[in-house]
C-alpha cells in the first residue's frame, strides 16, 4: 500500500445536478482539503455568455473560500472566449473545457465528447482560445468517441497547447460510464505527454486511489466524482484521516437539506436533490430498502425527513462501504 501521506489531494469532479454551489460549500466546510472543485458545465451561447443557473453557480459570493474551477461546454470559440473573460473578471484564474459529456443531445451538436469527432474544428477552436485568452485553460476529456485509435492523434493535438491540466477520463463516448476505465489509454498519455495530467474514473475507495498512485507514480493529480459523493470523507482518508462516521453523514445530509431549502422554492425540487443523493448513500447502509422506498415515495419534506431520520436512527454505516466498482455500478 502506498503511504497515504504521499498521495496528492483529490479534486472533486463536476457532476451536473449534484455538485452545484450549495453542495460544494457544504462539502468544503465539512471535509476540507480537496485541491479543487470543478463546477458542472455551463453551456454559453452568443446571447448568454454567463446567465441564469450558470451565473448563480459560478458567482463569487457563492464560492467564497472554496477552490473552484468553472467548466464550460461549447464548440464555438467566440462563446468560450466571451464566457471565460467574464469568469476572469469575476476573479477566476482557470477555466475548464468539457470534452467528455457523452449525452446524446450534447454529442449530436458536436459538443462535449462529440467535439472529439471533429479534430480539425477542435484544432481551430483551441488555436483561437489559446491565442486570445490569458486565463489558464484546463481540459477534461474522454479518449475518443468510438474507438481507441482516436486517442493518440487527440493527445498529439492537445500537446500543441499550453493546457494547464489535462484531466483524462479514459473511457470512449460509447462506453458512457460502463465497464472498466481503459487504463491503457492513460498509460499511453503518461508515456507520450508532457502536459500536467490528472486521472479521473472509478476512484471509489482509498484502495482504488492507492492502487492508481502505485501504477502511475509520476501522476500527482487525481479526480473523483461518484466515489466522493457516496463517501464525502474519501479525500480525508487518503491523507491518513479517519473514515466517514454516521454522525458526519447525517450532519452533511442536514446541512445540504437546509441549504437546498434556502435557495429552492417548494418541497419538490429539494426532494429531487435529496433523492438523487440517496442513490449514492443508500449503499453505505446494510438494509436501506424500506426507508429508501419511503423517501422515494415522499411528496413532502415532512414525509421525507421522517424516512431519512428513521434510517439514520435505526442503522449503522457498513464499514468500508463505497460506490460499486464498474460493472456493478448503477
Ligand atoms: C450525474 C453525473 C453528472 C456529470 N456531470 C458532468 C459535468 O457537468 N461535467 C463533466 O465534465 N463531467 C460530468 N460528469 C462526469 C464526471 O465528472 C466524471 O468524469 C465521471 O463520473 C467519472 O468519474 P468518477 O468515476 O470518479 O465518478 C458527470 C457524471 C455523472 C455521473
Automatic annotation (TrEMBL):
UniProt family annotation: Belongs to the dus family.
Keyword Nucleotide-binding belongs to the record: yes
Name of this chain's protein: tRNA-dihydrouridine synthase
Active-site residue numbers: 101
Domain named DUS-like FMN-binding: residues: 12-236
Chain residues that bind FMN: 71, 140, 169, 225-226
Cofactors required: FMN
Stored SUPFAM superfamilies: FMN-linked oxidoreductases (SSF51395)
One example GO MF annotation: RNA binding
Pfam families: Dus
Domain of life of the native organism: Bacteria
Keyword annotations of the record: Flavoprotein, FMN, NADP, Nucleotide-binding, Oxidoreductase, tRNA processing
E.C. numbers: 1.3.1.-
Function, in words: Catalyzes the synthesis of 5,6-dihydrouridine (D), a modified base found in the D-loop of most tRNAs, via the reduction of the C5-C6 double bond in target uridines.
Amino acid at each position: 500500500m502506498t503511504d497515504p501521506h504521499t498521495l496528492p489531494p483529490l479534486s472533486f469532479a463536476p457532476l451536473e445536478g449534484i455538485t452545484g454551489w450549495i453542495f460544494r460549500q457544504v462539502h468544503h466546510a465539512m471535509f476540507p482539503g480537496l485541491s479543487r472543485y470543478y463546477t458542472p458545465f455551463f453551456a454559453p451561447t452568443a446571447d448568454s455568455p454567463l446567465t441564469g443557473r450558470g451565473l448563480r453557480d459560478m458567482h463569487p459570493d457563492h464560492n467564497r473560500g472554496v477552490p473552484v474551477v468553472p467548466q464550460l461546454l461549447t464548440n464555438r470559440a467566440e462563446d468560450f472566449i466571451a464566457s471565460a473573460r467574464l469568469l476572469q473578471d469575476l476573479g477566476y484564474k482557470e477555466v475548464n473545457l468539457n470534452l467528455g459529456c457523452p449525452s446524446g443531445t450534447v454529442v449530436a451538436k458536436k459538443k462535449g465528447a462529440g467535439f472529439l469527432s471533429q479534430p480539425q474544428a477542435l484544432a481551430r477552436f483551441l488555436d483561437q482560445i489559446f491565442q486570445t485568452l490569458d486565463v489558464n485553460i484546463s481540459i477534461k476529456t474522454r479518449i475518443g468517441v468510438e474507438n481507441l485509435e482516436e486517442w493518440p492523434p487527440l493527445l498529439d493535438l492537445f500537446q500543441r497547447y499550453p493546457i494547464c491540466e489535462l484531466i483524462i477520463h479514459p473511457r470512449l463516448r460509447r462506453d458512457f460510464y460502463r465497464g472498466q476505465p481503459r487504463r491503457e489509454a492513460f498509460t499511453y498519455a503518461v508515456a507520450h505527454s508532457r502536459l500536467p495530467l490528472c486521472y479521473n474514473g472509478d476512484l471509489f475507495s482509498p484502495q482504488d486511489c492507492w492502487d492508481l498512485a502505485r501504477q502511475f507514480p509520476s501522476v500527482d493529480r487525481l479526480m473523483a466524482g461518484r466515489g466522493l459523493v457516496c463517501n464525502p470523507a474519501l479525500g480525508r482518508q487518503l491523507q491518513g484521516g479517519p473514515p466517514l462516521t454516521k454522525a458526519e453523514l447525517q450532519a452533511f445530509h442536514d446541512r445540504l437539506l437546509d441549504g437546498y431549502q434556502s435557495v429552492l422554492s417548494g418541497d419538490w425540487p429539494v426532494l429531487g436533490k435529496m433523492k438523487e443523493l440517496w442513490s449514492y448513500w443508500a449503499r453505505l447502509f446494510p438494509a436501506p430498502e424500506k426507508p429508501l422506498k419511503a423517501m422515494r415515495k415522499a411528496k413532502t419534506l415532512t414525509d421525507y425527513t421522517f424516512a431519512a431520520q428513521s434510517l439514520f436512527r435505526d442503522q449503522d454505516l457498513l464499514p468500508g462501504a463505497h460506490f460499486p466498482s464498474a460493472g456493478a455500478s448503477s
